[in-house]
């Protein structure tokens, strides 16, 4: 902040100069006026002395005229270049008073309307915090400076959870939801914080939050994990196993939390069997497999070349834009029948069976680019579990 205040002080000095320079010029003009008055008084005294000498007979009339002319020349020489006196309508005290009030008012207005706290926070966030307490302090001051920042509120809530302050975290997540909307992941975080803030007691509020989150996104991980914890704490071990298995299916293979989750499933299974129960096996999800026949519209056959690439893929109608499964052919292969299934997934976590509704797309690209081409064909949305063969015609310009 030192360099900021130095810059502000420099600008203030520049502003004061516009007020003080006229005052200093006025003082210099006053000095010039005083010197002129003195020169006139000396001239009059010299003329009076010459008249006295003439009356005493020391000087004759010619000598008198010569002496008077010499005194006049000296007066003109002393007053030459002196500007005419300027009269200030404001008076001298006003510029000095303004010079005092300007910095005082400027400082007061900046402290009231300015953003010195945000400037300081920006400088602090440019450096890594030395402790969790320092990070929390920064986030708290950032939220105080920008109370409408959903991002700041969210990170402060996460920080409170890391510090085992679920009550404060629940308040931050509630404010985040009010600003950013009722997004499933935010509802899940809010429900989790509220559950621990209530001493691990399930409540209607927590139930409503998790229900809303899972209704919007059945794979919302925080809600699934929380429901599993609540079921385990209330000795509903089969429910805990089911929720945690659903959560486990959403995590990538390299996720570090998979081991802890699998350990929780194992403990729930042991307690269920120790109580005389039997672990119900989760139903195996049927792999999705779409069969589609792709052909080219007759009016386009003269406009394409046999070596042009044809990309056939399925993408989720509501979800990530990346293809879920894809195959590559050429125009020479058309018409062609292909199968798109989980085995053709572009990424392990993006499988056809993970999305209830998809759209089939076929694109011709002379440059061999799957994301842009010359001609395209699209199907209507259909269930990923569809088993009936589909037909897809490439018949439209790719825009």
TrEMBL record:
Pfam families (UniProt xref): Ig_CycH, TPR_CcmH_CycH
Superkingdom to which the source organism belongs: Bacteria
Residue span, Cytochrome c-type biogenesis protein H Ig-like domain: 290-395
Region (Disordered): 372-399
Primary residence: other
Key words, A-Z: Cytochrome c-type biogenesis, Membrane, Repeat, TPR repeat, Transmembrane, Transmembrane helix
Name recorded for this polypeptide: C-type cytochrome biogenesis protein CcmI
